[in-house]
Write a structure and sequence with these properties.
Largest sheet: 7 strands, parallel
Number of helices: 13
Radius of gyration: 23 Å
Order of helices and strands: EHEHEHEHEHEHHEHHHHHH
Number of strands: 7
CATH superfamily of the largest domain: NAD(P)-binding Rossmann-like Domain
CATH architecture of the largest domain: 3-Layer(aba) Sandwich
Structural class: alpha/beta
Strand content: 5-15%
Bound molecules: NADP nicotinamide-adenine-dinucleotide phosphate
CATH topology of the largest domain: Rossmann fold
Number of domains: 2
Amino acid sequence: MTNQENKSAKTALITGASSGIGYELAKLFAKDGYNLVLVARSTEKLNELGGQFWDEYGVETVVITKDLSKEDAARDVYNQVKEKNITVDILVNDAGVGTYGLFATETDWEKEKSLIHLNVLTTTLLTKLFLKDMVERNEGKILNLASIASITPTPLMAVYAATKAYIYNFTQSLINELKDTNVSVTALLPNATDTDFFNKAGATNAKVTDNLDDAVVVAKDAYNALMKGASKVIPGGLGNKAQEIMAYLTPQETLAQMMRKNMEPKNTAQTEEKSNKAAWAWGIGIAAVVIAGAAVALAYNNSNVVDKARYRYKAGKLKSGADDVYTDVKDALLSGLDNVKDAVATAKEVVAKARETFTEAVS
Ligand SMILES: NC(=O)c1ccc[n+]([C@@H]2O[C@H](COP(=O)([O-])OP(=O)(O)OC[C@H]3O[C@@H](n4cnc5c(N)ncnc54)[C@H](OP(=O)(O)O)[C@@H]3O)[C@@H](O)[C@H]2O)c1
């Protein structure tokens, strides 16, 4: 039975499905039998995708060609959906762009204005319009594309990172407002991902592009989190999760300096590569120790006598890990890492806290 015959099939509206993360998400929805409303500027690509989904999965696709950086674009999309009598069960606010360069002297205001409109205003209004309907039905899900940049100041992409901070904060507030409903909103915080994003932002030469996550993995993790109604998802491996914890533990000035090095052009960044790597290793090391410590402590508290002995052994190992991280931090600082000087107090505190956790777990 195709979805045309299956009137109970649900519909997902995805902005920015013509490439990258949105494209990978659209494939996952289609595979699961969702009808789709795809919105972006590239009509041909979206039509092609719709044809492919029909052939492979028998799902219907409505294409809405729209420049979402324009005034009234969100309302227009909503009106078109209403006119077609479509109920949107899931909204994915994926469309977004970045722009690269020093804010004061290099970036272009017109581009930034249109970026803010797309990333912030359109996402907010689409959410407002569709969320109201979802709340009335007491059913629905929304996925908002934030970024790891939502929680880290990002020099050379200052305006972009600020828009993503808005999206993350906005989403977390909505989650609280919706807690007594069956409507969920999920924030997706990918790290740098292998799509056309950096190319369009004029940032292909930035150091950060040396290490990109796979859009297929990002979309899969996002899809699973959205379906579970999770409040947020940081896709990928432990490294990305550790980066999140580091962002919460590190002073903003230090974080900004780390991100600056990561965003600089490759040739400039190479000269500073050593100190940058040390800084990241420092943060990720601390975060890994804290995560591991918390996991061991939690497991210890919930385990039987035999397991407790096992966890004591693990905690002992972790303790020496914490010592290693502490030594690394000291070495990094002594070898001239001026940019992490501010962090020493935090580092000591965090390692001391980690030690305290292990000690509690084994005492
Ligand atoms: N790649 C990363 O490193 C990364 C990391 C964190 C978060 N994100 C976020 O992930 C989202 C998707 O980005 P991506 O990495 O998949 O980049 P991408 O491959 O460049 O995809 C961007 C999508 O947004 C659409 N779009 C851009 N401007 C638009 C406009 N004015 N009107 C309508 N649609 C527009 C594009 O479609 P058309 O060009 O056809 O209009 C395209 O489908 C963005 O919100 C981005 O901020 C990306």
